[in-house]
Structure formats: structure tokens, C-alpha cells
Amino acid sequence: MPGENLSRDEARERAELLSVDGYEVYLDLRSAVGESGEGVRTFRSVTTLRFRRTGTGDATFVDLVAPSVNAVTLNGRALDPAVVFDGSRIAVDGLADENVLVVDAQCAYSRTGEGMHRFVDPEDGEVYLYTQYEPADARRVFANFEQPDLKAPYRFEVDAPEGWTVWSNGAGEQDAEGRWRFAETAPISTYITCVVAGPYHYVTDTYKRVSADGTELVIPLGAMCRKGLAKHFDADDVFLITKQGFDFFHDNFDFPYPFGKYDQAFVPEYNLGAMENPGMVTFREEYIYRGKVTQAAYERRANVILHEMAHMWFGDLVTMVWWDDLWLKESFADFMGSFSLAEATRFTNSWVTFANNRKAWAYRADQLPSTHPITADIRDLEDAKLNFDGITYAKGASVLKQLVAYAGRDAFLEGARRYFKRHAYGNTRLADLLTVLEETSGRDMKAWAKSWLQTSGVNTLTPVVTYDAEGRITELAVLQEGGELRPHRAAVGLYRLSDGELVRYARVEADITGASTVVAELAGAEKPDLVLVNDDDLTYCKVRFDEGSLATLRAHLGDITDPLARALCWSALWNLTRDGLMPARDFVRIALDFAGRETDIGVLQMVHAWAQSAVTHYAAPDWRPEGGRLLAEGGLRELRLAEPGSEHQLTWARFFAAVASSEADLQLLEGLLDGSAAVDGLDVDQELRWAFLEPLATHGRADEARIGAELSRDDTATGKRHQVRCLAARPSAAVKAQAWAQVVESDALSNALVEATIAGFVRPSQRELIAPYAEKYFAVIERIWAERSIQIGMDVVRGLFPGLQDRPETLAATDAWLGEHADAAPALRRLVLEARDDLARALRAQECDGRAL
Fold first, then answer.
1. Residue 2 has pLDDT above 60, yes or no
2. Mean predicted confidence (pLDDT) in 171-187
3. ∠ CA(761), CA(767), CA(772), 5° rounding?
4. Per-residue DSSP letter, 293
């Protein structure tokens, strides 16, 4: 990986030297099928790159990661590939004012989801290809200048196996000789070019819109998936959300969708949620649901569809100069996903999900040692890869939500419209956005940006309330803590119990600044049972409670009628637990008392995940068995109480399976699988069967033959991933040794199967079984980072960190590795530092929980 890195300074120097007129890329993908012989399976890639010298100097380099280069020609002059190509770069010198570079190479198909990924469907043997490049893997498919500010138009030509269809960013057609030719794109960056090829199931539709002046906009729509998933593909709902999104963005952006057609491909073994390639968006195929799922799952998919659509403007039409300003696309897309979801689709409560789910990601990331400003310092591509994180996405989106409250919705959207028109097909920096927002809002955006975009860390807001003898508020102040005290536009809500419900009776919106802010408007109000700072979730902060409010939540959390307020309280209680201020067992008890009354499925799923984490990581070790027993008993109780056939029943069934461990629990799961037991209204479909089988494998009640029999029922790519995870989950030293070897000592597994194997290997109930691998982990991670792709390296370093060995000795071993490897790759050190922080946090929380005895 180090040899494939690209620094910001190198990119800046290259951008000062040249500009790109266009690419013509030919790919011969016919080698994707048939026997490959020995060695790496490759395809031919021929790139014709036209560029001009605009600065001083006559030498540069072109990016290409490939097994071999057949020929390189610059302005008709042949260059010796053995001399100019080092495996990741082609050195070129003797540049003219206008240049034509032709590179003929053999590029490798990928098994890691980077570059040109090749997937063989075990169900029918069909081969499927797709590309994934962000931030810099287009160079694994064709020679290029791999940096976002060197935009250019592209023409792709592809030879594919007979019977295949090929898609790219532009509209395509197959000529008489069988070659696929695609229309030239608008100027775009390398990382959002795309090719998808194979025998995909393809469905079409059309979006039409008539503007006020009578002009009709017509956008051809397409959606595709593997043939094996066609029977599950609800393309109509995908198209519905797509059309609603286009209506919303056209209404608010006043800039017609600029990239012609709009295809959406759901592809196998995808590393990301989705990717915003203009005209050819790619998604992970797990968004096609093979069994019954909740509306929360459909909401997540709709959010991703709209997130990627927002990128057509924020990121594709207008692109950041370098990855420092990654937030200029990801924060905006994350915000716009929830914004459009709430206003244009059936998912009108999307801000509840945002407050409870997305912000939890941001709060965690912002408290790690690797936290960074939203506008980050990205030195190179490895930094860029790791900065697709909770800061760039969820914190950035939260800050934009705050900006809308600060500047006003109309000013914010008018600023976006001017931004698109002023910088269409170009590249921008932070200052370009601030300029238009200052124009439209009249506010000093530089000061706002300094506080919110150029500093790191999360503030904590705590109410301090005093009362008079009659119980009325004499003063309510909000205390702000944190390294950087920021201006917050926040609401403070007062709630009281009335007829068994906890309802809001007063709300004031105020500017919270400095260490203490008195909310004068609330003086004289009747005494509340609950004071909720950041009511309606206008700002980005952690919320604390006064003692009276915390006591109210312990007894009445489920009585809060407003779902957003309830979600904010769940989130705040979880932050107290993570921060070691509330015993983990207290959070578990609150969850068991009130989760059964939670109406929002997405919030319920988060509470389930938090309760499991509380027992696994934050509870005192000697209380874990009791905590696990309580979760299982509570899960089964709520499963039986849930309305038959409801989403809540399905959610509780999955939770119960995840925490089941007793003999009786496991016997029930076995009975649900073989039909000897039933829960009224619960349909045990194939996905739920795997969810029930996994704990049986984990606890030694499903051997290889039993797992194989389930695969025979579901001999599909998804079934294979489930099988691999279950096999690695079995409680055997030999099984763990095999799983470790498959991931660490071999690169034969695809990215999806690496992920599944790691998930099976790491089981909280098997701490002692996997304890010997803690020392091995620190011995291998530097080699793994050097030898594997960055995606696999990240998966291994994060996934196999011995966090379940939650003892001071593990923390000491981590510190020893960090001390002895000060010169290790910064991105690798960041991953280990983050894992260390999680471990240290767990140990502090366990101390807090232990004091609760």
C-alpha cells in the first residue's frame, strides 16, 4: 500500500503543471468468463489520455496499479514500460504543450471490492463485474491522473462476453461487432467514473418533469441486480423514491439533473453502502431484501438512494479540490438524505432516525483520539480513505442542520443554488461555499465556520435549574463544556407528567454561547419533571440531565409521547453510559423497562444494539452473565407480547436470537427451526432461519453438517456468507485457528467472506477461546497493512483487534505496539489508536458499573 499512496503536495504540483482535455478508455472484459489458468486473472485496458501543459516543467507521472504494462506511447514516442512503470506510476517526461499519452496495460480483476470487482455467483455460476473507485482506485482499471481536481470528459468502449450487457456513466449501445460504446460524459473526476457489466436483471422506467416555462425534462431510469435476486427485487419502490427525490431536488436546487440517464445497480460484495457515480449509481445488494424486514430497513434504503442522488449536485457537478474538503459532498449528501426523506417521501420521521442513529456515529467518532475538524487535514490517500467517517458524514450533516437553523432555510437553499450555478463542473474549497452563504444569509460565515468546521470535539450541554418556594423556575441556565465553546442554536423543552404521559408544555429556542447561558424566557415557568436541552435536535451536542430529570427518565422514559424527544433521551442515556457516568446495568434495566413501548422501529433497533454493547463491553465482568440472562428473558417476554406478524415481533425475534444462550433459549431456537415450536404470527423465513442458526453454532449446537444442510436450503451468495460466518462462530480451537489462517495467512477469500469470517471469529461468549490471538494480532498487523489492499487491511486491523480481551494487560500491549511502531503507516496507527480508545473507554465504564454493586 505505501507505494500506491499519493500525497496532497504531489497532487497540487501536478494540478499546477497540467490540465486534462479528455480520456478514451477501452476495456476488454471477455477474460472475465472461462478458465483463467494460473496466476491473477487480468483484462486489457487501453487508455488514450489527452492533456495540456499549463505550468512550468516537462515531466509528470500517471497513476496505474496493474500487474503489467504492454506499451506506453507519448506523442508518438514509445517509452519502455520496464523503465517508466514501477507498479503504481508511469513516469513521463519531455512533455509538449499538447500531449497524447496511450497506455496499454493488463489490469487485474479484484476480489476486494476495489477497482474492477469480479464476482462468481455460486447459485448459477454467472459472473458479474462492477467498478468501485473512491477515493483512488480508478487507476486499477485505467491509467489516469487520480485526483479530484483534474476533471475531464470520458469516452468508454468495452468488449464483453457474449450475452452480457454493459453500463457506464453515459448512455451506451452495442455496435454490430459486439462492442459497447458510451456517450462522452460531462467533465467529472476519475473516482466517479464507472463500468458495470454482466447478465444483470434490468428494469426500466422514466422520470418526467415539466418546468414553469413548458420545458420537459426526461430522465431514463434503470435499476438492476443479479438474476438470482430478481424475484426479491422491488424495483417499483426504488423508482418511487427516485422520482420523489428528483422532484425534491429540482424544486429546491433550480439546476436540472445534469448527467442524462440515471441507472442504479445493486451489486454483490460491495464494501460501501453506495457510490454516487453520475448516471450509474452503485449500491450494496443487501438493500434488496430476501425476507420480511421492517419499515426501518426501507427507510435506510430510501435514505441511501436520496443521499446518492444529492451527490449528483454536491460532489459530482461541483467537486472538492482535494480530500480535505470531503465534507463539501458527504456532509451535504448526508444532510440532504434526511431532509428530502422527511419532506418528499413516506418516511416523515426521518429526523428521529437521524437524531438516534446517525448522530450516535458522530458522537463516537468525535471522541476518538483521531477526531478531526470537519474540514480535515488530509495529507495523502490513506488519510482520505479513513476520513469517510462519522465526522465527515454524520457530524457534518448535524452541523448543516444547525446551519439551517442559524442562517434560515431559505438562505441556505438559495446559497446552494448559487453555488451550483457559479461552480458547475468545477472544483471548490470551503471559501467558495462560505461566500455564497454570506451573500444569502447576511451572516458572518467565517466565524461560524471557524467554530463548527475548523475545530474538533463535541460539546456537552447541561441544564442547571433553580426554583422558588412555589416550585416555579427562577433561573434556567445551560452550561457548555468542551475544548471549543461554540455558538449553538438550540431549543430547551420543559415536560411534565399529565394523565400518565410525559408531554411538553413549554419550549424556548435560544442562542447558547460561552460556558453558561441563561434562558431568561423560561423564568417563572412551572416546575418541570423533565428538562430537555436540544429539544427538536437543532444542534450537535451531547445532552446531560439535572438530577430530577434523570430520575423522571428512569421511571417514565416510555411515557414521553413525542418520538423525537424520546429518541433524544435514549441517545443521551447511552452517552452517559459510554462516558462512564451511568452504570451499564442501569441502562440495561431502563432498556428492558421501556424498549417494549418504543414505537419507532429504528430507535428500538438502536436500543437493542446499545443494550447488547452495554453487557458485552461496559458491564463489570462479574455482572455480564446476569446481564445476558436479563436481556434474553426480556427479549423473549417482548417477543411473546408483540403483536403477531408485526414489525415489532420481527425486531424482538432477531434481538432474542442475538442474546440467547441458556439451554431453554437454544432449545426454543431449535424448535423454531425444525417446526416443533412456534410463536404466533412469526414467519420464520430464510433470513430469520440464519439468524436463529448463528447462536446455535456459537454455542456448539450446530456442527458443520447442520450448517451445510442450511446452505443446501439457501445455496446462494447470501447463504454462503451466512454459512461462512456460522462456521467460524463454532466454539472450537481448531475452528478459530482455521478462521485466523484464512483471513491472516491467505488472500484467497473475497472481501465479503473476509468480513463474514471475522464476524464469526469474534464472539463475546468465546473470550477465553480467542484470547491466544491477542499477541498474534500485534505480530501481524504491520505485515497485513503492507501486503493487502487498504480495504482488507482496514477490515483486519479493526475486526481482529482483541477488544474482547478487556483487561489492563491488553491496553498495555496496545500501548507497547504503538510505542515500538512510531514509524508505522499513519493510517495504520490511527486504526490501532481508535481501537485502544474503545478499549480504554470500556475499562472505565466497567469500573463505573462495578461501583454500582
1. no
2. 94
3. 80
4. -
Cα torsion for 659, 663, 669, 673, to the nearest 10°? 150
Which CA distances in Å does 652 have to 67, 360, 557?
A: 50, 22, 19
For residue 1, name the pLDDT band (cuts at 50, 70, 90).
very low
Cite the DSSP H helix spans in 18-93: 81-84
d(CA 435, CA 676): 68
CA dihedral angle for residue 17, residue 22, residue 24, residue 29, rounded to 10 degrees? 80
| pLDDT tens digit sequence for 513-571 | 999 999 999 999 999 999 999 999 999 999 999 999 999 999 999 999 999 999 999 99
Q: Which three cell numbers stand for residue 619?
A: 458491564
Alpha-carbon span 133 to 556, nearest angstrom: 49
CA distances 542 to 335, 457, 480, 657, Å, are: 19, 11, 10, 32
Whether 14 contacts 144, CB under 8 Å: no
- Produce one character per residue of 142-155: b if its CB has 16 or more CB atoms within 10 Å, e if not: bbbbbbbbbbbbbb
DSSP for 175-187, written as a single string: -TTSEEEEPPPPS
- For 806-821, the DSSP string reads -SHHHHHHHHHHHHHT
The per-residue pLDDT for 33 is: 95
For 83, residues 6+ apart whose C-beta sits below 8 A from its C-beta are none
The cell for 657 is 436470537
8 A C-beta contact, residue 324 and residue 378: yes
Q: Note whether 100 and 20 are within 8 A (CB).
A: no
DSSP letter, residue 744: I
* Residue 775 annotated as catalytic: no
Structure confidence at residue 722 (pLDDT): 98
The active-site residue, picked from 24, 114, 308, 834, is: 308
Dihedral sign, CA of 617, 620, 621, 624?
negative
pLDDT digits (tens, 9 = 90+) for 424-446: 999 999 999 999 999 999 988 88
CA 30 to chain centre: 33
